Amino acid sequence: MTKEELKEHITNFQPNAVFDETGEWLNVQVEATEWKPFAQWLRNDLLNMDYLFCLTCIDWAQTAAGKTQAPSNSPPAGGGGVLTMVYHFSSTVFRHTIVVKVKLDRNNPEIETVSDLWRTAEFHEREVFDLFGVRFLHHPDLRRLVLADDFEGHPLRKDFDDPVNMIKL
Amino acid sequence: MYRETQIINSGHTILSAGGDLGGAADGGELVINVGPQHPATHGVLHLVITLQGETIQKIEPHLGYIHRSIEKMCESLSYRQFIYVTSRMDYLSAHINNHACALCVEKGLQLEIPPRARVIRVLMDELTRIASHELWWGAMAMDLGAFTPFFYAFRERETINDIMEETCGARLTMNYMVPGGVMYDIHPNFQKRVKDFIQLFNNKIDEYDDLVTGNIIFQNRTKGVGVLTKEDAISFGCTGPVGRGSGVPCDIRKLYPYEVYDKVSFDEIIETGGDSYARYLVRIKEMRQSIRIVEQLIDNIPDGEFQAKTKAVLKLPKGEFYSRVETARGELGVYIVSEGGTTPYRIKFRSPGFSNLSALDHISRGSKIGDLMAIMGTLDLVIPDIDR
User: Fold this and answer.
1) CATH fold of B70-387, please?
2) A151: nearest CA in chain B?
3) Helices (H), chain B
């Protein structure tokens, strides 16, 4: 399907989805509460998005919008900010690709897991939990993946600072 | 210290591989550790395996022993610098990692690269693929108890390393591909040496088949072992020879051709067995296809510039860019989020090994512990690529 057809088809199911067509692929933004039914629909609908090839997260704390809460050593108390979950889907049958984005509250990031729909998500979600601190509800085994269990903090967050192991250059 | 915590939490008696097997009875289950230092894990991967007798009940991979947080490091490196870090992810496909990053930056800059650079890049990629598959072939056979293939494979791989050394100045982490093309022109000896290598390798690959592929002991140890169905391969995001061994057409070179892959003729190797033997066959046949590509291009390197003119400091426009290439292990994706600065705001590497590893538990359940070596061998995991 072309971008336009995809857009129309998705709007029929999810009328309040927000689209962004500037990039290479169609970007769809949905609310966190609507994410799970939408994901189920993507997987099972005739769109047949069976291949989740990239799952990651972006911390927007240092962008122009987020800069108002000056990045200091301590994270802004109740300062808000946004984490965005990014899912890249593609269909191995029809070869169309879409990117789904879900905005989460940075202080209390929670989203439903999709590891029951795409099994690769189990590891990817553990990685995001580890490095960003996003909690995936109903995940079968939500533990840190690459870092030690007693590690404090989430390194890929923009305000993470480790004075011992320098990762900034 | 945290490893001990996990051991207590799991509620089992855990023994090291050489431990006292007598004290393990816990409902008949035995939990053993393979790795992080184990010859068959090919790197620092730690597997906690629950056994019932000799049968695998569950495999829990513990990662992170070589986690360097490459994604975080890249956030403070410029678009020219970050490429060099990526050679250290999948160190057997260093060229192809660099290639993916260069492609992503070029996509952001909307930069056309000269035809000469395109062909050189593809040649280097395919030589890398052969070198990587050779190392896999030798190591895989050694895991299953055949020692000779390891020496054979390294003998031919050495020739490729020498070619790389002459042109790129390095044998493993080449850092040869830069945004805009390649760092410097090929060495005057390059074409002759590659042709010598093709001649040598065409004889040797038949020898590989005689030595291992047709070997009945090898076939018995790999056929029907670690079966991954097509549906599961897609669901687990398995790509590369692992996906194609299960019948998933997932070769990025065919699906989303980059550089000159749409102008050369080669076959996408697909096996439908889904077992370790199918994955083995895919890689062996892929080596022949790589040779085919190299043969077509080696005498047809266009004249001209090897690098496009670029500014000293690269700035990507605000936006998101995604590039994907086919490494020796599967689909490598580079996802750059730019805020318009000189460094990436966020960068994500979708590494093939990470997704392929996630299928390990699923395909190993019910197999015997001895079969794990065949399964691990044909998944062809490179641990720095998984941990990043």
Assistant:
1) Cytochrome-c3 Hydrogenase; chain B (1.10.645)
2) B2
3) 2-9, 70-74, 82-86, 94-109, 115-143, 148-168, 190-208, 216-222, 230-235, 240-245, 252-255, 276-298, 352-358, 360-364, 371-379, 383-387
